[in-house]
Amino acid sequence: MFSSVAHLARANPFNAPHLQLVHDGLAGPSSSPAGPPGVPRRPRKLAAAAATEEYSCEYGSMKFYALCGFGGVLSCGLTHTAVVPLDLVKCRMQVDPQKYKGIFNGFSVTLKEDGVRGLAKGWAPTFIGYSMQGLCKFGFYEVFKVLYSNMLGEENAYLWRTSLYLAASASAEFFADIALAPMEAAKVRIQTQPGYANTLRDAAPKMFKEEGLKAFYKGVAPLWMRQIPYTMMKFACFERTVEALYKFVVPKPRSECTKAEQLVVTFVAGYIAGVFCAIVSHPADSVVSVLNKEKGSSASQVLQRLGFKGVWKGLFARIIMIGTLTALQWFIYDSVKVYFRLPRPPPPEMPESLKKKLGLTQ
C-alpha cells in the first residue's frame, strides 16, 4: 500500500517531461515498452480515439463538440442549481460574517428569516448562468485541447500534456466567464441583499436601471480571477488523477473496465480535483460575492478590506460544495459521452516515434 502512495506522490501532475519519463520507467534504453512482450502497440495521439467505428461521430467533429457542450450544460447547470442552498449560505457568510457565523448557523438564520423557500433564492440565474458557462467550459476545452495538441505535435503534446490541459482549460474558461457574469451578478444580488429582489425577473431590470450594463459585467474580472485558476486545476488535476488511478490503483487497464467502473474512476478523480479547486479559487470567490453586493467598490478595495483572514471565510462550505459538485459534473459529463457514444480517449500513451528516439523500440 505504501509503495503505491509513494508512486502517486512522485507522479504529481506538474512533473517536467524528463522527470515524468523517469517515473514512467521510460527514460533509458534499458527500459522495455509497456504491455505484454510480443504484442505490437498501436500508436495513438493524445486525443485520438482508439476505434472510430464504435462511436457515433468522429473525434474533433462539430457533432462531437456540440454534444460535449450539451454535456457541459447538463453537468454545470444541474449541479450548481442543486447546491443553491449551500451556495446561498456561503455567500451570506462571506458578505456578513458577523451575522452568519458558520455553515450550520448560516442555515439556521436563513431558515428562521426566510423559511424553506428562502434557501432556493437565486435558482433561476444560477441555472441559466452556469448552463451557459458549462456549454463554453467543456465545449471549448475540447476545442482548445485538440487545437493546442495539433500545434504542439504528437510528441510534445504527450511530454507537455499537463501544460496542454492548463492552457486549454484557461482559454475555455475565459469565454465561459463572459457568459456567466450577468447571471452571477443577479444571483448574488438576490441572495445577499434582503428586499432587493426575489426573482431574476425583478432583479435584472432593476440592476439595468440603476447601473446599466456595467452592473452585469463589473464582476467579470474577479470571476476570471476565481474561475480560471479553478478550471485549470479542475481539468489538469482531473486528467492526471485519472491517469494515476488507472496506472497505480485500478487493477486492470481501462479497456478491460466496464462503463460503470470507468464512471466510478471519473467520480473519484473529480472529487479529488474539486477539493483542490475549492482551495485555489476561494479568495477570489469571496471578493466576487462582496463586490456584487456593493455598488461603488472595486475588487482591490474589497480585497484590502477583507484582509487575509476574511477572504477564507466560508472555505469549509465551499470545499464540501465544490468537491461534490466537481465530482458530479465530471460524472454527468462522462455519462453524456457514454450515452451518445462519443469518443472517450484512454489515458495518454507515449507515441511510438518518441519510443524509437529513446531507443525503447526497434
TrEMBL record:
Residues in Solcar repeats: 63-147, 160-244, 261-339
Subcellular location: Mitochondrion inner membrane
Its job: Inorganic ion transporter that transports phosphate or copper ions across the mitochondrial inner membrane into the matrix compartment. Mediates proton-coupled symport of phosphate ions necessary for mitochondrial oxidative phosphorylation of ADP to ATP. Transports copper ions probably in the form of anionic copper(I) complexes to maintain mitochondrial matrix copper pool and to supply copper for cytochrome C oxidase complex assembly. May also play a role in regulation of the mitochondrial permeability transition pore (mPTP).
Key word Nucleotide-binding present: no
A Gene Ontology BP annotation from the UniProt entry: mitochondrial phosphate ion transmembrane transport
Subunit structure, as described in the record: Interacts with PPIF; the interaction is impaired by CsA.
Source organism of the structure: Octodon degus (Degu)
Predominant location category: mitochondrion
Family: Belongs to the mitochondrial carrier (TC 2.A.29) family.
One GO MF term attached to the UniProt entry: protein-containing complex binding
GO cellular component: mitochondrial inner membrane
A Pfam match: Mito_carr
Protein name in UniProt: Solute carrier family 25 member 3
Catalytic activity, as annotated: phosphate(in) + H(+)(in) = phosphate(out) + H(+)(out)
Keywords: Membrane, Mitochondrion, Mitochondrion inner membrane, Repeat, Transit peptide, Transmembrane, Transmembrane helix, Transport
Taxonomic superkingdom: Eukaryota
PANTHER family recorded: SOLUTE CARRIER FAMILY 25 (MITOCHONDRIAL CARRIER PHOSPHATE CARRIER), MEMBER 3, LIKE-RELATED-RELATED, SOLUTE CARRIER FAMILY 25 MEMBER 3
InterPro entries recorded: MCP_dom_sf, MCP_transmembrane, SLC25A3/Pic2/Mir1-like
Gene3D superfamilies listed in its UniProt record: Mitochondrial carrier domain (1.50.40.10)
Transmembrane segments: 263-284, 315-333
Membrane topology: Multi-pass membrane protein
